[in-house]
Amino acid sequence: MTRHALSVVVPQVLRVWRRQVGLHYLVSTICWFTLISFVWCGANNLHMNDGVRTQDIIAGDVFFEILEPSTLEYTYRLRPAKDFGGTFGISYKSQEGKLVPAVPADACSAKFENADELVGNIALVERGHCSFLTKAINVEAVGGAAMIVTEYDTEIDDFDYYIEMVHDNTDRDTDIPAGFLHGKNGIIIRQTLKKMNLPYAIVNIPVNLTFIQPHMINQPPWLPW
């Protein structure tokens, strides 16, 4: 029943009840129409709150926050490796971990120029030139605790997608967790650290977003989910 209909019907009913059944029933009728109006408004308020749930956003992905530098202080999404490596939150978790851009970036060899900085930390590496598993094995070989892969080639067709990282069907494996970071995030993180002459970013990983409303998540302004 619409509000307009209520405004027409209520006065008519009140006049009839006032003449025929007295004050007692008049009060009862007012209460009933008040209840109807409340339910009608409540249903619309619930409808206004309908929308995407945080659980829909998470969908099996992993999230982390950059705490420093402040210019990168947002929450980022990772697509975890599908069938190799450990698990973020179990194999590796830290409230003040270091995200270190690997040198060389492709991690296709264990001969890292900044191997000492990777020990116990998360390596930020570039997609391509070898399998995802090979990269993880090389990071693990120098003491890296986890790996985040990203795309730096903006001309590639799937630059705007989260890539499913799968095993390369060899008899090898790794114990460290790995995740894929959207290319735009990876480029901005790496460029910002280079511009500020910083060897790493401080991160909190993983972040539990289960009980946070979607509009409260601090998403990067250049890449809303």
UniProtKB/TrEMBL annotation:
Ranges for domain PA: 96-186
Superkingdom field: Eukaryota
UniProt entry tagged with the keyword Lipoprotein: no
Pfam families reported for this sequence: PA (PF02225)
InterPro entries: PA_dom_sf, PA_domain
Keywords: Glycoprotein, Membrane, Signal, Transmembrane, Transmembrane helix
Membrane-traversing stretches: 21-40
PANTHER family referenced in this protein's UniProt entry, alphabetically: PROTEASE-ASSOCIATED DOMAIN-CONTAINING PROTEIN (PTHR22702), PROTEASE-ASSOCIATED DOMAIN-CONTAINING PROTEIN 1 (PTHR22702:SF1)
Name by which UniProt lists this protein: PA domain-containing protein
Classification of source organism: Eukaryota, Metazoa, Ecdysozoa, Arthropoda, Hexapoda
